[in-house]
């Protein structure tokens, strides 16, 4: 059974979020990424593989090195999903604030 990988799967893990943040700053090879974590290179490679399958990063082979680059435009789907809920809650809190102001003015 093949797993469907998407940006939500990519950001579900804190280590993958850290890797995305690091690669957003600058491209890095697998060894330099692995050195920044307290886990095996194999574990980091698995996270990188998932990020690659999700389309959040690309991996370019340059000689013997595999250089990872962030592709942050793939996170737009996450941003759009979060934005709809941000708008919803902003409207709800504004309505609550208005209601509380009404109650406050009636009690005076």
Q: What does this protein look like?
A:
- By secondary structure, the protein is of the alpha+beta class.
- The chain has a single domain (7-106), classed as Orthogonal Bundle (Arc Repressor Mutant, subunit A), CATH 1.10.10.10.
- It has helices at 7-11, 14-25, 30-35, 41-53, 76-106, and strands at residues 28-29, 57-62, 65-70.
- A hairpin with a 2-residue loop joins strand 2 (57-62) and strand 3.
- The longest helix has 31 residues, at 76-106.
- The chain is elongated and about 75 Å long.
Brief digest:
With 108 residues, the protein is an alpha+beta fold. It is built from five helices and three strands.
List keywords for this structure.
3 strands; 108 residues; single chain; Arc Repressor Mutant, subunit A; elongated; 5 helices; alpha+beta; three-stranded antiparallel beta sheet
CATH architecture label: Orthogonal Bundle
The percent range for helix content is 55-70%
Annotation, overall tally of beta strands: 3
**What is the CATH fold-level name?**
Arc Repressor Mutant, subunit A
How much of the sequence lies in strands comes to 5-15%
Query: Could you say which overall geometry the principal axes of the C-alpha atoms support?
Result: elongated
The secondary-structure element order is HHEHHEEH
Give the CATH level 1 class: Mainly Alpha
Number of domains: 1
Radius of gyration: 21 Å
Main sheet overview? 3 strands, antiparallel
CATH homology superfamily: Winged helix-like DNA-binding domain superfamily/Winged helix DNA-binding domain
CA distance, first residue to last residue: 65 Å
Poorly predicted runs of 5 or more residues: none
Instruction: Please tally the helical runs, counting DSSP H or I stretches of 4 or more residues.
Output: 5
SS-based class: alpha+beta
Strand order of the largest sheet: 1-3-2
What's the average pLDDT?
Answer: 91
